[in-house]
Every structure is written in C-alpha cells, then in structure tokens.
Amino acid sequence: MPVAEKLLLFDLDGTLVNTAPDLAAATDAALETLGCAAAGEARARRWIGNGIDVMVRRALANAGVPLNDRLSHRKALRAFLDYYAAHTLDRGHVYAGVVESLEELTQRGVRCCCVTNKRQALADATLQLAGIETYFQLVIGGDRVSRKKPDPESVHLALEHFAVTPDDAVLIGDSPNDFGASTAAGVPFIFVEHGYGTVDRESCVSIESFAGLDEALARFGF
C-alpha cells in the first residue's frame, strides 16, 4: 500500500515539543495571582496531558484551593491563559530528531495529523513557533471535540477526515491518554519515552526518541 494512503497521528506536548518549561511558568503565574507558592517545573510536568483547564485545576488542588471556589479558579485560568499566550514557547523546544523525521515523512508522501488536548489556538501557535506547522495537514485541538483523549473522538475525527481505517494509521504519543485513545480507536500506538507520561511498554512499541521512529514505523508498513 502506498504511504500516501496511510496516516500518522502525533500528540503535541511531550511528543513533538518540550512545552513543560512554559506550561510550568504559566502555572506559577496563575498560582501567584492567588498568592500561592510556585509549583515549579518538576511538579507541573505531572499535571500536563489533559488540557489547560485540568492542569490549572490540579495546580490549585495541590495548593489547597477548594474546587468549589469558582472565582479563584476562573481568576487562575485567566492568568494562566494570558501568560501562556504571551510566552507560548519562550523556554521550550522541539525535541531532537522531530524536524528531520517530519521532513523525511513529508518527502515520502506520508500524511501527518496533530491530535492534542491543547486548545486549538494554542496548539496552532505552538506548532507555528516551533517551525513545524507546515508538516501537518490537520490539527485537532482539545476544544474541537466534546471529549478529550483518552477518549478516541479526536482520533476518529482524524480518521474520518482522511478516509483512513485504523489499520492504516499509527498514533505517536507520550502519555496514557494517547495510549488510551489509540487503543479505543483500534489504532496502533508508538510510545515516545522522552515525554511526560508512562505506559505499559509491554503493550505497545516504545522508542527512546525520534531517532528510532523509522524502525518503529516499519513494523506497521510505513
């Protein structure tokens, strides 16, 4: 089967781009707005993956802010978004080997889609600032679907858009959310170890970095 009939779905945060430094800084800005102590990057990394709203909620819970304090939650979320919009990729960077892999895949005619829980506008901005937006024929942000990963809705949307069956697609990600979405959609999964999450590596193909992507994709006919 020609590679043009196949599809690669990529997660964004922790897979293509190390966004943790800027997400952590935005989290600390949100906490500072409420007079709470900074969380720091190491702790904030554990809160990445389910979208910004959930990340802020986790940070506030860690700081002891009650979930029913909606005013504080709205204030913190606004502070996070304002900071992050202005500093989307000040400190972060594209992971090693990503650009080379995307360039090679594009030259081979492989279609690529980014499927992320990040809000659409912020996902688009991140990809643009990272200089890799042109490699993706479709970007599906978390606010384009009613249920984020690990729900398979965004994966199904991508498959439908490209008229591709699950057997002719592969999802590449770094978290249990990605693994859960791919499993629920019946799409093979490649776990990238340089990200923020962990999965049962006996249940999927695992690579340390994008240097091993070609070999992993060959197992699925790419």
Structure description:
- It is a single chain.
- The chain has 9 helices and 8 strands.
- With 222 residues, the protein is of the alpha/beta class.
- The protein has 2 domains: 3-18 and 92-218, Rossmann fold (3-Layer(aba) Sandwich); 20-86, DNA polymerase, domain 1.
- The strands form 2 sheets. A 6-stranded parallel beta sheet has the order 5-4-1-6-7-8, sandwiched between helices. Strands 2-3 form a two-stranded antiparallel sheet.
- The chain starts with 6 loop residues before the first strand and ends with a helix.
- The model has no long low-confidence stretch (mean pLDDT 96).
Name the descriptors.
222 residues; alpha/beta; Rossmann fold; DNA polymerase, domain 1; 2 domains; six-stranded parallel sheet; 9 helices; 8 strands; 42% helix; elongated
Q: If helices are DSSP runs of H or I spanning 4 or more residues, what is the number of helices?
A: 9
Cα-to-Cα separation, first versus last residue: 9 Å
CATH architecture of the largest domain: 3-Layer(aba) Sandwich
The structural domain count equals 2
Number of DSSP E strands: 8
Summarize model confidence as the mean pLDDT. Answer: 96
Low-confidence stretches: none
Give the structure's gist in a few sentences.
With 222 residues, the chain is an alpha/beta fold. It has helices at 20-33, 41-44, 52-62, 70-86, 98-107, 120-130, 153-162, 176-185, 213-218, and strands spanning 7-10, 17-18, 93-94, 111-115, 138-140, 169-173, 189-192, 205-207.
